[in-house]
Fold this sequence. Notes:
Elements: E1 2-5, H1 13-20, E2 24-29, H2 37-50, E3 56-59, E4 61-63, E5 66-67, H3 80-86, H4 90-109, E6 115-116, H5 139-155, E7 161-165, E8 180-181, H6 186-191, H7 194-202, E9 207-210, E10 213-214, H8 227-237, E11 243-248, H9 260-270, E12 274-277, H10 280-288, H11 312-316, H12 319-327
Parallel strand pairs: 1-2, 1-12, 2-3, 3-6, 7-9, 8-10, 9-11, 11-12
Antiparallel strand pairs: 4-5
Helix pairs in contact: 3-4, 4-5, 4-12, 5-7
Amino acid sequence: MLVIGIAGKELAADEREWLQHPACAGVILFTRNFASRAQVTELAQSIREAAPRQQLLCVDQEGGPVQRFREGFFRLPPLVRFGERFAADPEGALALAREHAWLMASEIRALGIDLSFAPVIDLGRGNRAIGERAFAAEPATVAAFARSYVRGMREAGMAATLKHFPGHGSVLEDTHFDAAIDPRPLDVLRAEDLLPFAAGIDAGAEAVMMAHVTYPAVAPEPAGYSPRWLRDILRDDMGFRGVVFSDDIGMAAADTAGGVPARVAAHLDAGCDVVLVCAPKLVREALDSLDDRGPADTARLTPLMGADSRDWHGLAADSRYDSARAALSGPDFRVA
Length: 336
């Protein structure tokens, strides 16, 4: 199955055609697809109407530097702000993170979009792509936040996606632009980076997104298309039974698998359920590569479809909406 990116703020003719392909299971939206709440709500509806089967509509609305929809939305602080509070007030920090999760997910669900790919539970250890998107550097602290954040998202009717498995925070390279190699052995990874993922899985997270990072002491290929990571460790050892997403195969670190068809095949054959193809220029080739694989099993994605169907007016009438925004509007949470 593929989740694809589209180019603009309304569906083009070729994109309507893409939605007919049996391997197309959803669409991921970006800032390029957003003008206003009304416009993106209409776009979401037009995608659903154009497709012959149920589509999973997604976005990255983490807060801080990664918030695709901003105008008309609460400016969500980055996750690192909660980690900064944790040492002095762990219970308060965890409660605020839960409200952040609920608020983020509630606004996205009010648009008719199913899923925001969150939370980031990589360790905050200097990675160029992660930065303030991470809660903290300490595994036990991030594990506690993983549980709290998953709970808040689920209270808003949204499934949680733990990312980026098995941990992207302890290497410096940004996999959008460079290959990333983490030489640590599996026993160290289990005690550190994998700890928050174990906590999130235990809390009931429905999905995991893979990292384009190679861990040569564990497997020769990047984790996103490694049977060792996907089947032996995530599925068998950690007991995860939910949906596994690749990260975007248009990123530089994904090209070690070859061209677009090879990247798609490598991820699916290793055990990914869904491959993200975020760049519209890659979508046609990715879809064509799956012509012989048969229709996507979109029933696999049913647990990720949004559960709360209220619109923005219904959200605004909820007293928790006002209280969550107030709690996250203090001087420590101001966003530039």
